Amino acid sequence: MGSSRSPAPQRAASLAPGAAPDGARGRALRVRLVLVVVVVCAAVWLSALFDALRDRAATLTQAERQYDNVTGALAEQAARALQATDLILRQAALLDPDVAGAPADRDAIADLLRRHMSGVPQVRNLFLFDPARGLHVSSAPSSVNTDLSDRAYYTAQRDDPNLGLYVSEPFISRVTGDPTFVLSRRLAGAGFRGIAGAAVDVTYIRRFYHALDLGDGSSIELLRSDGTALVSREHDTLASGPSPWRGALTALGQQQALQLRFGHPTLGDMRLSLRRVPGYPAIVVAGRSERAILQDWRAKTWTNVIRTFVITALATVLLIAFLRQLARHERVTRQLHQSQKLEALGTLAGGIAHDFNNVLGAILGYGELGIEHTHPGTALRRYLDNIVMAANRARDLVARILAFSRPGVGSVAPLMLQRTLTEVRNLSAAALLPHVHVELRVPSEPLVVAADASQLHQMFANLVTNAVQAVGQAGQVQIHAARVDVEGERVCTVGRLHRGSYARVDIADTGSGMSTNQVERIFDPFFTTKPVGEGTGLGLSLVHGIVLDHGAALDVDSRTGAGTTFSVYLPLASGEPVPEPVPLVPPAGSGETILVVDDEESLVHLAEEVLAGLGYEPVGCVGATQALKVFRAAPERFDAVVSDAIMPDMPGTELLAQLRQLRPDLPAVLVSGYGGPDLQAQAAAAGVQAILTKPLHATELAASLAAILAARFAPTVAGPSSVSHPQPVAHPTKEEIL
């Protein structure tokens, strides 16, 4: 019996050539699928990233365009407002009471000032001021002559005769108490004769700016050209200290307009638009923080990210599911391929073994006859014993090969699993090395399975033998049986588990274990990692076929250096196990005439001698043609016929069909070294009562002949029975005959 496991890990390299093509194709397919999914997912993510960046740039560009439009409109509005203010300021300068043509009544001048400013709503106060002349005429309804000589708009005009229009910083008016800034001009005349000033209402302009909603984080300001904030939409209080926009004004330089990214100390990174007020020393600034601008973009981007993640996650899940399905399909395909290989091997091996069984039958039969006629202890007896021993070893090898050509199980009956495992344990213990131990653990509760006793014994014997060989010179093999309940279907290394109750038998060893490539090939016929001459490689192939024939399943768990465990799942059966058979003495004949037909002349002579020893009168024929001729000469002479199934001139089933045309009630026994899947149907059509397998026991032939001769007068005959394992006898003689 060949082991399919190597005791040395270095032998795993010898497995690669046979297993590489299918495994390489499967791995290549998986790699291609993974690459395709990775490329598709990467393309989806890159597309999402590209769209996000493009939308971000478009959002910022749209915001900058909007702010540029806003600053343009506000600059035009500020220019018109300042122009209107400057116009009434020039008119007020002409009302100097000390100039010819001006009204001498200062109260009348105040009324004229109020009349000039009535059409300019942003101007809160229009006034003339010269402390040297005691000139303080104002449109404001106040009788207090407030001293304005400390104001910058006054001192600047006093100190610079060429200043022209001057725009002051914002301040709280001493006259009205409101925030304001003043536009001033120098009064005409020789020397400094005072100023004409117009106070602009900051609150009025701020209300106008508040009407423009640019969103959270936005800012609109009117600045003096030196950076002083004149009007700020966001700040009610007047600014003190340097303007935060001073850096942006530096970047503007002499340009009329500019768009830039600017860092604000409180609002963060801003997208700003700056525009000069045409003709006046003022600049309009409008902008919004990038974070606020991109708020909607971020929400949209997160939605796209989640959508892309869901798509790629779904693709990944589908890939994993497909890979699992592919792996399941490959396992099923491997199992189908394995079954096809076993079927093809059985067909080939059966044809070869048929002729080889004829030779073995003659060797064993004549060897047994020779042993009966020699004395123990002689050289001739020793020679015959060695011949029979070698022939029995050859018979065992042929039996293993023929197991592939016999699909299905033979005699299925309820069996006590503990009894079979105990027998296997006892048989294996007889040949164990001193430091190798086989431990058996079985439950006290009976484990009854429906199986063929010989095949079940052969399967566990193969597995235990392989485990013993795997541990080498020292180690332990554990055989553990238990009842398990399977809740759902599961694909195993061999076969498939369905929901139900099973007897699970674990055969574990402490050997060197197996690699993945070894596990993939251990069930291949004639595959072995043992040295030449030490294994046939048929052991686990037989296990594979027996497992499938019994509707069972088998799992292999092995890692290099960590031992191996074979787990066999056998469906539990109801009913009582079959009791042990009682040894029987082979029945003898009563002189019945038996026609013996075979294409091997030596087997014909051997059968004649054995049948004569059993009390029958044999008539041997070599080939079907001779048998037909002999039978036609006297059909009533013969009580039964024993014929080979495969002969060159005519198959045994066809011969028996022709014989039964002459004698419809003729009992018939068919002997075959290789029956094939159709032998049962062909034998039933030819009226065969029993089918025996070569090489067979003399007691088996005797029992079959006695049974069919006893039933020769029965009114009906059931189909042929396949006799592969006769009941044992106490002292058989002439063990093998055909």
Secondary structure: elements and pairs:
Layout lengths: L15 H78 L12 H12 L5 E8 L4 E4 L13 H8 L6 E2 L3 E2 L6 E8 L8 E7 H9 L7 E7 L4 E4 L13 H7 L4 E8 L3 E9 L5 E8 H4 L1 H78 L6 H25 L8 E5 H13 L5 E7 L6 E5 H19 L2 E13 L3 E2 L4 E2 L2 E10 L6 H6 L17 H11 L3 E6 L5 E8 L21 E6 L2 H13 L3 E6 L1 H10 L6 E5 L7 H11 L5 E5 L6 H8 L3 E4 L4 H13 L10 E3 L15
Parallel strand pairs: 13-15, 21-22, 21-23, 23-24, 24-25, 25-26
Antiparallel strand pairs: 1-2, 1-6, 3-5, 4-5, 5-6, 7-8, 7-11, 9-10, 10-11, 12-14, 15-18, 16-17, 18-20, 19-20
Helix pairs in contact: 1-2, 1-7, 7-8, 9-10, 10-12, 14-15, 15-16
Largest sheet descriptor: 6 strands, antiparallel
* Helix and strand composition category: alpha+beta
Mean pLDDT over all positions: 81
Shape: rod-shaped
What is the strand tally?
Answer: 26
> What fraction of the residues are assigned to beta strands by DSSP?
15-25%
DSSP helix fraction: 40-55%
Distance between the termini: 24 Å
Unreliably modeled segments:
1-20, 715-719, 721-738
How does this structure look, described?
It contains 17 helices and 26 strands. By secondary structure, it is an alpha+beta fold. A hairpin with a 4-residue loop joins strand 16 (490-491) and strand 17.
